[in-house]
Write a structure and sequence with these properties.
With about 80 residues, the protein is α/β, with parallel strands linked by helices. The protein is about 35% helix and about 20% strand. It is built from 3 helices and 3 strands, in the order E-H-E-H-E-H. It has a 3-stranded parallel beta sheet with strand order 1-2-3, covered by helices on one side. The longest helix has 15 residues. The protein is globular, with a radius of gyration of 12 Å. The relative contact order is 0.22.
Length: about 80
Amino acid sequence: MRSLLFVPADGGKKLDKAMGSGADGVIIDLEDSITAEKKAEARKSAFDFLKDASKAANRPRLLVRINGLETGMTDDDLAAIV
């Protein structure tokens, strides 16, 4: 992969624009780009985006950056997107 683009999971239109950015990979960020009070909403947004984006025939590789183990939020992140 030549290029990776990080996009906040609650990015709305930024997520859609990332799909056409030409990046080889789009990383949907649930970690430090999302404030603690918006984590649950961002998880749902990430799931909905991945569900739709994964159907696209010609798309970048999709990855998700989750919160670290020490935060206690890892399980919630994984449960929301897996």
